[in-house]
Amino acid sequence: MLIKPSTLDAIFKALADRNRRAIFEALCHGPAPVTEIAELMPITLSAVLQHVQVLEAKGLVHSDKVGRLRTCRVETEALGILRYWVEARQRDFRRAERRR
Amino acid sequence: MLIKPSTLDAIFKALADRNRRAIFEALCHGPAPVTEIAELMPITLSAVLQHVQVLEAKGLVHSDKVGRLRTCRVETEALGILRYWVEARQRDFRRAERRR
DNA sequence: GGAATACTGAAGTAACCGCTTAAGGATTAA
DNA sequence: TTAATCCTTAAGCGGTTACTTCAGTATTCC
Asked: Rounded to whole angstroms, what are the CA distances from B63 to A12, A85, B8, B19, B47?
């Protein structure tokens, strides 16, 4: 697998913010509407929505609006990519160590 | 294992920058002095040093100065933490899916 | 000693980020 | 049909970031 730097940029940037990561973590336990997510957080509903939009733009979350409710759910591909990247770095390191 | 949000903040922020990530990736293949790293990169030596300092401050890299050469090497703990976090999210997600 | 090499720090700057407030649109409930 | 609920957008603001240039220090080589 070959991952584009821009893809990793998107994933790491999306998860680098504590609140955004908290939203993502919450959604890993199951889908939730925006307001419900916001209740757990120390920021405005507006800020939460902005975070959700960022997460969605970078492909970590998908959301669907039914009536006045927008339900957000996690997209798992990003986690797979991230894990793959980490494991590749660990492999590189171990290989370099053996060569030493 | 329980990871502090500030630890994850540090790791994700450190790796969210493309150039900084490139430095980290390069160092996973083995230690290198600052100038050698800089040769592979589209930015100034000064900028590279600043990135190295960030990586070091956040615990992803350690460096040692001998004479006029500062040799940088990867600290692998961050990768372990990152991998653990990803796997925990994947577990959360699968558990939530089963419950569905 | 003098020149080249390798790093270091400071200052400045342009761009980006996360957040709030405020105002509004759409949907549902009474 | 009115009120409550849920989301959405825009504007603005303060803080942070990545970068450059420039000027410097320490070390090694000749």
From this structure: 24, 23, 21, 18, 16
